[in-house]
């Protein structure tokens, strides 16, 4: 916890034989993870102010379809998108998680 903000999972479990949180349920195929990420970004895009939409649009143009994007370009775009998602709060969480899945799927 940091002040009034909570980052990460909050889980309360009772009883015996609990498994816990399964974190690997997302797509492992990089293309599938990328498509899912773009879909969540599009949803977020409709919920942000114009200046944040500009950042999202520029980042989406930079990464295009995700094919043959230089590592630095992809990293900057995903950092910018994650930054917007973080500033929006709870509505940005799906984007942050989808960016994380893309990064994991790409092995970065």
Q: Could you characterize the architecture of this molecule?
A:
The chain is mostly helical and 108 residues long. The chain has one domain. Helix content is 57%, strand content 0%. The chain has 4 helices and no strands. The longest helix has 18 residues. It is globular, with a radius of gyration of 16 Å. The two termini are 27 Å apart. The mean pLDDT is 85.
| Number of separate domains | 1
Counted beta strands: 0
Low-confidence stretches: none
Largest sheet: none
Strand composition percent? under 5%
Structural class: mainly alpha
Topology:
Blueprint: H1 30-45, H2 50-63, H3 71-88, H4 93-106
Helix pairs in contact: 1-4, 2-3, 3-4
Overview features:
mainly alpha; 108 residues; 57% helix; globular
Structure in a nutshell:
This protein is mainly α and 108 residues long. The protein contains 4 helices and no strands. It has helices spanning 30-45, 50-63, 71-88, 93-106.
């Amino acid at each position: 916890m940091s002040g009034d903000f909570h980052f990460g999972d909050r889980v309360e479990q009772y009883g015996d034989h609990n498994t816990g949180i399964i974190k690997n349920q997302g797509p492992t195929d990089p293309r599938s993870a990328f498509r899912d990420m773009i879909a969540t970004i599009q949803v977020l895009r409709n919920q942000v102010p114009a200046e944040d939409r500009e950042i999202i649009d520029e980042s989406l143009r930079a990464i295009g379809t995700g094919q043959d994007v230089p590592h630095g370009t992809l990293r900057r775009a995903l950092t910018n998108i994650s930054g917007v998602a973080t500033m929006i709060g709870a509505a940005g969480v799906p984007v942050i998680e989808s960016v994380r899945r893309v990064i994991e799927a790409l092995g970065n």
